[in-house]
Amino acid sequence: MKNNLLIGFLLLFSSVVFAQKQYAKNYHTNGNLKEEGWVKDNLKHGYWKFYYPNGVLKEKGHFKKGLKHKYWYFYRADSFKEKEGHYINGLQNKWWLFYDNNGDVGHKCQLKNNIKNGYCLVYQKRKLVKASKFVNGKKIKEWKDFSSFKKENNLNDLK
Fold first, then answer.
1. Whole domain around residue 83: which residue ranges?
2. Is 138 within a domain?
3. Is residue 15 a part of any domain in this protein?
């Protein structure tokens, strides 16, 4: 009887400890930090950061039950921002911004479940030079000037 109670207590205690969040760190073979963040139920959960082998930040964002979730930032090995955007259950959704080598937005696109779905706007020297509209990954329209784009579209769709 005592053994059964002891085993029951240990199982209950271990399941409570197992369900708690723990902070984890993993390292590259050169000893530099590779990744750090929270683990819950053996899955990445909460805020995480990932690093290149040289120690420069590579990406950061949140996980929910092992899947990328919420807003994420990605960086090049030279520390400049590469892209940023929303994840929902591990899939890219909503607006995503992609940066050029000068650190300016080169283009931005609306995505749904990793597929272009909505508008993609292309910039050069911070000026809109081209716009396209996609439905389920297929381009259905393209504009080469802002005035025609503005006439044909509801700019509230760009929010």
1. 22-158
2. yes
3. no
